[in-house]
Amino acid sequence: MTYLEERASRPAILAMKYHPFYKGKIQTALKCPVSSYDDFAIWYTPGVAEPCKAIQKNVDLVFEYTNRANTVAIVTDGTRILGLGDIGPEAGLPVMEGKALLFKYLGGVDAFPIALATKDAEKIIEVVKALEPSFGGINLEDIEKPKCFYILERLRQEMRIPVWHDDQQGTATVTVAAFINAVKYVGKRFNDVIVTLIGAGAANIAIARLLIAYGVPPGNLRLVDSKGVLHAERDDIDKLQFQDKWKYEMALKTNKDRIVGGIPEALKGADVCIAMSKPGPGVIKKEWITAMADNSIVFACANPIPEIWPWEAKEAGAKIVATGRSDFPNQVNNSLGFPGIFRGALDVRAYTITDEMCLAAAVELARVAEEKGLSEEYILPTMEDWEVYPREATVVAMKAIDQGVARIKKSRNEVYEEAYKKIKAARDQTKLLMEKGFIPPPPE
Amino acid sequence: MGSAQDIEIRDAKPEDINSIVELVIRLKRLNEEFDPLFKTRDDIAIHTKKYIESALGSEESVIIVAERKGKVVGVVKADIVDRIFYEPRIEGRIKELYVLPEFRRKELGKRLVNAVIDKLKNRVDIITAEFPTLNEIAVRFYNTLGFRCIMSNYAIEARE
């Protein structure tokens, strides 16, 4: 085995050692003092009846008297776990716990894995709606498309807490942040670049929507799916209206130049390529990158192997390259988004997370990197720049208040302080548990 | 894209035939989506052309198109039918209605249907429309225009 191969296979080996050792990655912990058994009369019966009665009179008090405002349900049906496909709800649970770990450590949010034994969209909707009283937000995870669009749309309409699908809004937020900085770095204007999106799945449809919300003219986008470039007169467009109305919407308003063909035709002359398609290498060829406009930007985000290797894209003329991988520069990493966004949404008890809130987070994410100094290899903050999370939380919360989707109002400073404190507490608590041996060191 | 204002609704002319045929074929191909019994035949083009030609030359049919800058972007065809058992007796039956995807959401469908109603108002007593049951977009469209469902069409394959 080469060094690189060995390094690449290491996480898999350690994961199989550590998972049975720790038997899970999250647990519940107390938030209030217990000095003696007498305290139980306060925290439980009979004392607890008083907050119950108060909430009965004013249901929003549940957010003040319980932990609800700090909780998110991570819901999956196990149908699209990572790149593994439909492996079942139990097999998806380690991923959901991992997500809960990120929620807590990066955002201070208490997230609960909920893996469902049904794949039926209507049943999932029914179950998730019934969970509403217990949670401050819902994170839909690894649900296959196009079901995921439908479920997200229905739940966003029918629930009074934020419902989020990270593969859509999360990926879109972080990608748009990378787009903002990359375009700025190469000295182009976001409203006249041509953007080719390869793959028309959950992520790219959401990215297209957010780019349009940011101000990229819809006609400047070119979406490519397995049948080629989308345009309003493609033969299958009428069918799409019934099969995937989200893709249909995009077909109607994108590709003003009426480009016909496949990936090479769509990339020709384009300024930006955002690939969220299938693992490479070789999905995108070097000569196609060469045919893009000067100072081109290439995001090749398929995992585990990008559509084109970053060095190949560079050799072919790309100025900035980003991937989904942590071992290359410019990782388009969802973990830069959802922890801070949910932190902000929860802290103002938001009813929903709007596209404008996502956009505010994207702009702030871009700004954090810009303040540190953009370079070809630094267009996004990394998870180590952890002030990004309270800052995202702040802009998201302020936008929620602006848009009238927050239950409570706070000042910018209050939101920032609170978010900072909660996120820092989560990190410090983990450190403390490790120091005290409650989280033991990993086995040799 | 263009705005709705620069789209003219007018009677079809013989020289529109190829554009109309293309739109009608698109409509029929869409119907394949709803049931295997709507699978289009390989030589659909020839037959569609004959069908439109004969309608253009008939007193019992009307074809109206939406035109933008010389290009036909939408079409409606209706036939006049005598409902011999019922009153009201004379029916204008919309058999084809199609608007190119990029010209949708400009109320062209509504303008086309209204043009049919307007054109036939002195000749027919009711207007009906025919489309596959599962075309929910058509269901919503006609409901919005005030139509209601009065007839169902069921099918079974006669041979194994």
Question: Could you explain the architecture of this structure?
Answer:
The complex is a heterodimer of chains A (444) and B (160). Helices cover 48% and strands 10% of the residues of chain A. In chain A, the strands form 2 sheets. Chain A has a 6-stranded mixed β-sheet. In chain A, strands 2-1-3-4 form a 4-stranded parallel β-sheet. Chain A has helices spanning 3-22, 40-43, 49-57, 62-65, 89-107, 121-131, 147-158, 166-185, 202-214, 237-243, 245-253, 263-267, 286-290, 310-315, 338-347, 355-372, 388-402, 412-435, and strands at 71-76, 110-115, 137-140, 163-165, 195-198, 221-225, 228-229, 272-275, 296-300, 318-323. The mean pLDDT of chain A is 95. In chain A, helix 16 runs antiparallel to helix 17. Chain A is α/β, with parallel strands linked by helices and 444 residues long. Chain A contains 18 helices and 10 strands. With 160 residues, chain B is of the alpha+beta class. Chain B has a single domain (4-144), classed as Gcn5-related N-acetyltransferase (GNAT) (Aminopeptidase). Chain B has a 5-stranded mixed β-sheet with strand order 1-2-3-4-5. The longest helix of chain B is centred in the N-terminal third of the chain and has 15 residues, at 17-31. Classes of the chains: A alpha/beta (444), B alpha+beta (160). The interface between A and B is medium-sized, with 13 and 13 residues.
Helicity of chain B, in percent?
A: 25-40%
Mean pLDDT of chain A: 95
State the CATH topology of chain B: Aminopeptidase
Reading off the top of the CATH hierarchy, the class of the largest domain in chain A is best stated as Alpha Beta
Give the strand order of the largest sheet of chain A, numbering strands 1, 2, ... along the chain: 7-6-5-8-9-10
Per DSSP E runs of 2 or more residues, the count of β-strands of chain B stands at 5
